[in-house]
Amino acid sequence: MRPSGRKTDQMRAVSFERGFSKHAEGSCLVKFGDTHVLCTASLEERVPPWLRNAGRGWVTAEYGMLPRATGDRMRREASAGKQGGRTQEIQRLIGRSLRAVVDLEALGERQITVDCDVLQADGGTRTAAITGAWVALRDCLGWMEARQMVKADKVLKDHVAAISCGIFAGQSVIDLDYLEDSAAETDANFVMTGAGGIVEIQGTAEGEPFSQEQFLTLLSLAGTGIGELVEMQKKVLSDTSAA
Amino acid sequence: MRPSGRKTDQMRAVSFERGFSKHAEGSCLVKFGDTHVLCTASLEERVPPWLRNAGRGWVTAEYGMLPRATGDRMRREASAGKQGGRTQEIQRLIGRSLRAVVDLEALGERQITVDCDVLQADGGTRTAAITGAWVALRDCLGWMEARQMVKADKVLKDHVAAISCGIFAGQSVIDLDYLEDSAAETDANFVMTGAGGIVEIQGTAEGEPFSQEQFLTLLSLAGTGIGELVEMQKKVLSDTSAA
Amino acid sequence: MRPSGRKTDQMRAVSFERGFSKHAEGSCLVKFGDTHVLCTASLEERVPPWLRNAGRGWVTAEYGMLPRATGDRMRREASAGKQGGRTQEIQRLIGRSLRAVVDLEALGERQITVDCDVLQADGGTRTAAITGAWVALRDCLGWMEARQMVKADKVLKDHVAAISCGIFAGQSVIDLDYLEDSAAETDANFVMTGAGGIVEIQGTAEGEPFSQEQFLTLLSLAGTGIGELVEMQKKVLSDTSAA
Amino acid sequence: MRPSGRKTDQMRAVSFERGFSKHAEGSCLVKFGDTHVLCTASLEERVPPWLRNAGRGWVTAEYGMLPRATGDRMRREASAGKQGGRTQEIQRLIGRSLRAVVDLEALGERQITVDCDVLQADGGTRTAAITGAWVALRDCLGWMEARQMVKADKVLKDHVAAISCGIFAGQSVIDLDYLEDSAAETDANFVMTGAGGIVEIQGTAEGEPFSQEQFLTLLSLAGTGIGELVEMQKKVLSDTSAA
Amino acid sequence: MRPSGRKTDQMRAVSFERGFSKHAEGSCLVKFGDTHVLCTASLEERVPPWLRNAGRGWVTAEYGMLPRATGDRMRREASAGKQGGRTQEIQRLIGRSLRAVVDLEALGERQITVDCDVLQADGGTRTAAITGAWVALRDCLGWMEARQMVKADKVLKDHVAAISCGIFAGQSVIDLDYLEDSAAETDANFVMTGAGGIVEIQGTAEGEPFSQEQFLTLLSLAGTGIGELVEMQKKVLSDTSAA
Amino acid sequence: MRPSGRKTDQMRAVSFERGFSKHAEGSCLVKFGDTHVLCTASLEERVPPWLRNAGRGWVTAEYGMLPRATGDRMRREASAGKQGGRTQEIQRLIGRSLRAVVDLEALGERQITVDCDVLQADGGTRTAAITGAWVALRDCLGWMEARQMVKADKVLKDHVAAISCGIFAGQSVIDLDYLEDSAAETDANFVMTGAGGIVEIQGTAEGEPFSQEQFLTLLSLAGTGIGELVEMQKKVLSDTSAA
Fold first, then answer.
1. Distance CA B97, CA B189 (A)
2. Would you call F130 helix, strand, or coil by DSSP?
3. Alpha-carbon dihedral of residues B225, B230, B233, B234, nearest 10 degrees?
4. Chains with ≥3 Cβ pairs under 8 A against B?
5. C or N terminus of chain B, fewer CB within 10 Å?
6. Which residues contact F30 (CB under 8 A, 6 or more apart)?
């Protein structure tokens, strides 16, 4: 029995609020239950130094949590003077996940930075961030298309979405919330495309090592869940008045 | 004529959304027009080292802006490795403003940290932050009162709210938005209590120096505006179901 | 009764020692009683990156205290690895105050940095710094005029000076020393020009909020005091052998 | 055809040099071909603050590369003033991998830090580091057992080793060297125990997304390779004169 | 011929101004020609963590230069976020030199920090700093003796002073100023006690290596010069009204 | 009697392992007994900003210790966020020592960075580092000569090597190991050329000040020892197959 009463293959309520931010070229407040992440995509007409004159652009991500997004207040990273290892790990993952479906040549010599800031955390912030970041990125490209800068669908080759699965109380479950996450025996994050290709897999045994069979069950749960997330992304984007 | 079409003594639409954050003991999303600041009050059963065994508590504030809260994306302070001078100046102001109406002995040996994070900026973030931070702090004290820890009204002696005034296109106006702020000749921030006492005054000539008469006009505008803000704080707090 | 025995409207003995530093284009050791600040103005033939090719220059300030300028030794900021919030607040104030009377176009594409280093502190370091920094800046411009680089009086449009006033033991007093400053109910800093225009006002209630009437009394005290400081600046500059 | 001429399931020559460091309680220079990592295990009779009086110990890891371990010299992280995101990601992975096979209660209130410093890099530094770190940790526990502090086999419940696999030029291969790594379409790291349980899986599509079938092939290759590595660990530990 | 017209064995005019700082337990503004260093000795009733309960105290030094102490303005170290290598090297040298003549047991469990801040630089700042720091330290111990805390002469066993010598334009000269220092072939700093014992020797060939004979000439020059400096220290301390 | 049983003028066993690193243009693992330092020389076709278009190159050094190179584990400097004072002092010394025998014009507009990383420490790491760094630098220049970039012997004008001497238990001894170093009364480091010229002298009284006679004894010991080190450098370089 899951603490939330959900079935093992049941994700939390997921929603996307496009155009949350007035200034950003694309933005989306994504919610996976009580996990709320604000994703903004910012376009800049410059590339990192190591990409100059290379004929292609760059997509990168930064991740942060508000100090009281969590149950106990955490120290503000700006005040601590550096981003922690967890933060850096997550923002590198988000960036890689987005780039897996972007044609950087088609983007041209520009950079899009997707900021994912957790307003409230209840487990699964990185997977919510990836799923919402894709929507913000898509709206940024739509903004650019409206200005004849790119063809959005040429730059963004496919959807990308992510979900966590894990073994909790002996059962394979999808979309762990904080209570489950902190007690899970195994915790895995999956990033996949709309076509079902795998972009990233990260699985960790928190307690006992897990078997190949267990891992395949998690992978199967994730495949179904990500399919549903991609459908939701499609649906929210079909509302042409929203961004 | 103001860019927004407002009258010289007309503030933007102001709203408070209490209980925005699930985890914080008190929280409030305050909006002054397109300026949106999330304020969370976090209670900790400890005091700073220099206050140990002094028989009183501490109230402090931290301030931050999401990188794309602004028209152009700003560098994330956590990534830059330090908080800028402007950030430090503002968070010190918020902390002093709140402490002006707090009885630290009545609080007991505890610390309340109010985080003010700007989700979207359109001028006046520091004054919105102070005004919203007071609501979050009040709800935190209410949470404590419900647990017999303190009497909220003994700890919090009065309201505190803040507004900016300035001279724009030769006219004294209240509650400058970004367009006005960046073109104003003089810019001043006022922090006052519910009883009308002055807690902080900060006035800066951006262009020509200003006269005593001009300053008194701004002070008068501010007094009226802050009176309205205090009424709004009272009204939103009277909704006992909200926090 | 003030601890120093001064009258309420009596400033401490003020002196300026021009040419204190052999290397700087302009320098001045300013003393407000036991508060001693060394101000040096350094000319550089370059501007900050964001001003390149903008056809105008920049004037900025930095502030520091020697570790044992104060009653108890403070940690050296260079060793702590960052400038504290107070330091940043003060150096931003000094820079703004100077720029209020500088014609940056007339300066040309150059930067003048005024370093204000507190050798000994006894209250009022920021106001002494502003008052002395103006003298160092004026001498730097005189140095430039002697080399046909600028007309000093075209670049520097007016005097600027500053003083603190506050409510101490129920009375409005000018130029608070450390004993008064640490016990004052209200503390305000005023920056004004030679023509009497206001450049900056910063007033803070340390204890009880203050009233508009109280504030006007402080403003009036400050106006008289700053007038005297400007006369002293004029007098010290009339000694053409000094710099 | 692999650049090194190896078969698809052929690892590089692997060796362990125990007791490389005179001072450390356990140490091992591990080589996977031209990738050389010095692992030292340091025992300290203290635990991190958050573990005090919790009745158990801690095992952690740090990772670093000498500046010229790589083809081009990289900036020294100590000089840059912080550890990069990649470094933090890797050292967190090594620590988790070791803790997966350690009984922290049996260790007692002590901390063992395993430093993994790359003397020379040619791909696969993190997997070599994990594999060698286990040997250094085992020898540290042997050192403790010789002093009647613990039973080494009670603290260390199983072997742990790691290998990378990837899709290079369309083929699934094991133990990628730098040339393969930088051209691979998919790159995955696997950490497993002596009993064959999975501790960590990290798979990344560098180019096209990969399929579940492809991933299973990599997992199978890894299982065989890690089995061999565990046998080598056993063999090198059977030389009782070495540490 | 030396740029200053001095003879090869002629030091610059040296002066000590005791009691320069109102707050410090001991202070001295030392001048070697145009090199001016403010030395303050601060007493604290605590020791560094690694000395706790060891029954003895500590004497340490910090060194800094005001940004415009030099011909060109240097970046402020507090703003750069760290002390440079040269700064650290010098402050370590000053601390070691002072400790060479201090009986740390006789000091008791206290720390004295001597801050040496260069107000104006013209070569030889480290040797001037050591020579002046000794005077500040002596006055601090006198302050303590007046309060029956220690016997100053039991804590401070001997004088210590320092001078630079070098080979300039083929000649061995003492007390190099900036012009000489930047052109010297060899530059050496000597720290000696009142009894003539050597505490520190640092010699560097800036151009051609130097011979043992050349080095002995420098050492001999230094011995005579330091003897004179010690006499000056004695003379300035004999003025019992000064500190 | 020395703890190691060595005679007073007997150095530890010294060895050089050239070509230790596959990637560096020159490299050498130097051992002075149990002190082991890996030196790598890295060539870059760029110079520091302040040398641009000056028609000459630069040679610099960086120094580091692995955390467990020492008896107790030290904190990793990359994790601490800065290089300590000792590290900076040593790397500046190594750089100066190498440059004393390099013709920077003959090098051309290039930079060679020699990294000296201590794998194991037992006293004398800086002198071992200098002695080994020279070998790595020579091999780097040989690599360049093989590519017709420079004439190695025109760039490198002489050998340079270093040794420590000190007064231990009342006797002057050469090449102190850790046990001697931590108990020595006086500790001095000498850097000399193949021709016997002195490049650097650093002598420190750890306890009692030392006399000129004592210092000359140390200098004489050092001269003999460095002569032997230079012979060893010549011998190891004569093996043309090694680098």
1. 12
2. helix
3. -140
4. A, C
5. N
6. F14, F15, F16, F17, F36, F37, F39, F128, F129, F131, F132, F135
Distances (CA, A) of E113 to B121, B224, B236, D167, E158: 46, 54, 55, 62, 18
The stretch B39-55 carries a mean pLDDT of 94
Q: Would the CB atoms of F200 and E199 count as touching at under 8 Å?
A: no
Alpha-carbon dihedral A236, A241, A242, B3, rounded to 10 degrees: 170
Across F19-48, average pLDDT: 97
pTM for the whole thing?
0.91
- Which residues of chain A neighbour D86 with C-beta distances below 8 Å? 92
Centre a 10 Å sphere on the Cβ of residue B192 and count the other Cβ atoms it contains: 30
Q: Is B211 within 8 Å of chain C by CB?
A: yes
Q: Report the pLDDT value the prediction gives residue B243, as an integer from 0 to 100.
A: 59
Contact B220, B169 (CB under 8 A): no
* DSSP secondary structure letters along F32-78: ETTEEEEEEEEEES---GGGTTSS--EEEEEEEE-TTSSSSPPPPHH
| Strand stretches in C154-221, DSSP E | 160-168, 171-174, 186-193, 198-205
Q: How many CB atoms lie within 10 A of CB E19?
A: 15
Determine whether the interchain pair C198/B219 forms a contact, defined as Cβ–Cβ distance below 8 Å. Answer: no
The answer to whether D21 faces chain F, any CB pair under 8 Å, is: yes
- Give the pLDDT confidence of E27-68 residue by residue, as tens digits: 999 999 999 999 999 999 999 999 999 999 999 999 999 999
| Rg of chain B (C-alpha set) | 18
Closest partner residue to E205 (CB to CB) among F91, F198, F205 is: F198
Residues 6+ apart with CB under 8 A from E142: E26, E152, E243
Give the closest residue to C224 by CA, choosing from C80, C5, C11.
C11
Mark yes or no for CB contact A198/D203 under 8 Å: yes
| Residue F75 and residue F59 in contact, taking contact as beta carbons nearer than 8 Å | no
- Calpha distance F130→F128 (Å, rounded): 6
> How many other C-beta atoms are found inside a 10 Å radius of the C-beta of residue F234?
11
Bridge-based pairing state of the strands D160-168 and D186-193? antiparallel
| Strand-pair category, C198-205 with C186-193 | antiparallel
B212-215 long-range contacts (CB < 8 A, ≥24 apart) are B212/C198, B212/C219, B212/C223, B214/B167, B214/B172, B214/B186, B215/B188, B215/C198, B215/C201, B215/C219
What single DSSP character describes residue A35?
A: E
pLDDT digits (tens, 9 = 90+) for F133-163: 999 999 999 999 999 999 999 999 999 999 9
Predicted pLDDT at C243: 58
| Residue positions counted in chain D | 243
Query: Which residue's entry shows tokens 């479906």?
Result: A101
Partners of B111 in the β-ladder: B44, B58
Q: What is the ipTM of this complex?
A: 0.95
Q: Which residue has the tokens 């749960």?
A: A221
Tens of pLDDT, residues A94-105: 999 999 999 999
In this predicted structure, which of A116-130, B108-122, B197-211, F21-35 has the lowest mean pLDDT? B197-211
